[in-house]
Amino acid sequence: MRQPLVAGNWKMNGSTDSITALVDGIKAGIDAVTTAEMVVCPPYVYIPQVAAMLQGSAVSYGAQDVSDQESGAFTGEVAPGMLADIGCKYAIVGHSERRSLYGENDAFTARKFAAARKAGLVPVLCVGELLEEREEGITEQVVARQLDAVISLEGIAALGAAVIAYEPVWAIGTGKTASPEQAQEVHAFIRGKLAGFDRAVADKVRILYGGSMNAGNAAQLLSMPDIDGGLIGGASLKPADFLAIGVAANA
Ligand code: PEP
Q1: Does any ligand 1 atom lie closer than 6 A to the CB of residue 8?
Q2: What is the rounded distance in angstroms from the CA atom of residue 23 to the CA atom of residue 238?
Q3: What are 155-211's pLDDT values in tens digits?
Q4: Could you tell me the distance, in angstroms and rounded to a whole number, from the CA of residue 73 to the centre of ligand 1?
Q5: How many whole angstroms from 196 Cα to the centroid of ligand 1?
Q6: Of 54, 174, 175, 218, which sits 20 to 30 A from 212 (CA to CA)?
């Protein structure tokens, strides 16, 4: 049985005050979430604040990105070991905004995945197709290529210790959600592909859906057999909505 995971990607939003209110709101309602593991991914600079506020709580925290390098002359980068040092459990890699806005390709994403693992972080590997790729009928090819980059660098076993987030790019921040059936189809494809390498890894890995998941559509998406949680952008900035998604994952 895979424990559902609901992770909030706050992106480049927040201030000391707004993040205090957000975390206080999450903590105040967290007891209603009985089954899912809840995770927040603040902007780097606010991670220590969030870590201090979450001490003793069941909510974990992670980073939205990570360097592929361990240390040294890499101006502006944040090393995976630094994130582990301040208590991060997770690091998102290959988010579509990193891929499309900052030119991060499959090979670079795979190196970030490897670096995160080496430092003891759990990578949350984002995969997903553009609208034109879906329309061309190559969704599975795109997702397979993104997964293969990691499998060929790190081996299949590495995915058993990671999280995958299927995020159709056309659904991110657009208010257009994949239907539960559309999402399930790709999730099943991902699990089936992994099973072709190693059935135990495929059964174990949590595959999250991301793309305009919200309090209203979460229950249906999360009821699909291969959807093990959500990676949430916009709705994770509102405590009530984020918590409602967590509650929707209650057993
Ligand atoms: C995301 O950024 O990973 C995401 C899923 O965003 P949103 O929920 O806003 O579509």
Answers
A1: no
A2: 10
A3: 999 999 999 999 999 999 998 899 999 999 999 999 999 999 999 999 999 999 999
A4: 32
A5: 29
A6: 54
